Request: fold
Amino acid sequence: MKVLIHICCGPCSIYPVETMKSKGFEVMGFFYRHNIHPYSECLKRQEHLESYARQIGLRLIIQEGYDLEGFIQNVVYREKDRCTYCYHDRLRTTALLAKRGKFDYFSSTLLYSKFQNHDLIKSMGESIGKSTAVPFLYEDFRSGWKEGIKTSKNLGMYRQQYCGCIYSEKERFYKPG
Reply:
């Protein structure tokens, strides 16, 4: 069974990819770029993911372009609810690629992070799966959170400290008086 997994960064891919491979899935990764800001951060995450993928023999699809403007236009005036848009766009894009590539399932490393809205991601993925006719492969990968961190540190991987968008970067660094 073939699964296309949306990957936000190398460290978040470790546990989900290992878990799916151990269950006999043929896994391919998809790196979605439009929500990662600034561009230098996007390139750093991509570079480290590509390096890790080569080490473990994971085939990758790297999203073309860098639609910063499109991302911002879609969240402007909805900044507090930006994650809903972002989840949907990443999952939908992954599902459509999976359909085009005749994958049996699609999934996301968002299911690994303890900082993401897991229930929303699950329900959204299942809904998108129904609408695209490519089932969403759901698994709660959060149980491997510490293992993934330990492995990524042992491998010397770049570990970013915010989700990816410019708003989450601001939340990380800007602490009002």
